[in-house]
Design a protein that fits this description.
This protein is of the alpha/beta class. It has one domain: Rossmann fold (3-Layer(aba) Sandwich). The protein has three helices and eight strands, in the order βαβαββαββββ. A five-stranded parallel sheet has the order 3-2-4-5-6. It has a three-stranded antiparallel sheet with strand order 1-8-7. Helix 1 packs across helix 2. The radius of gyration is 16 Å and the shape is globular.
Length: 177
Amino acid sequence: MSDTITLLNAPAIQRALTRIAHEVAESNEDSAAVAIVGIQRGGVLLAQRLQEILTGLWAHPVPTGALDVSLHRDDLNHRVAPRLQPTLIPFDVTGKTVVLVDDVLFSGRTIRAAMDALNDFGRPQRIQLAVLIDRGHRELPIKADFVGKNVPTAHAEVVRVNFSETGAADSVVLQKP
């Protein structure tokens, strides 16, 4: 039997994304040079929401894309066959500040794979990382630039981010074994 604890409800997620958007805006003077790339799957929905907020702050559209990192992971031999998701980056990343967006930062391996995959599309001037939840347990020296909430967890616990776009109520839950 496992316990489930709600870490963030819908209004808390919106507040966290609004704060992250303001931090991104403050950290990037040249808003025209910023692009957002969400990591499949949860990062894509967050990237779209972040893009909407930044478009309002900057009063111009912000290029946004989606990136599947499945084939760039260094742990492919430890996983079942990857379920590939679409990669769509309809702009040149070369010379841009790319804000990579993911829902949960854990070991850092997904982010490393994302940086490798992103380089297939050009050479960004800078890569920044925005995550909704940072739960620690890094295996690689990766640190998010923008964090919605730091949640210290046990290694065996699971953090799930639910989205209204997928039919669930917006929430972040912690499942204890």
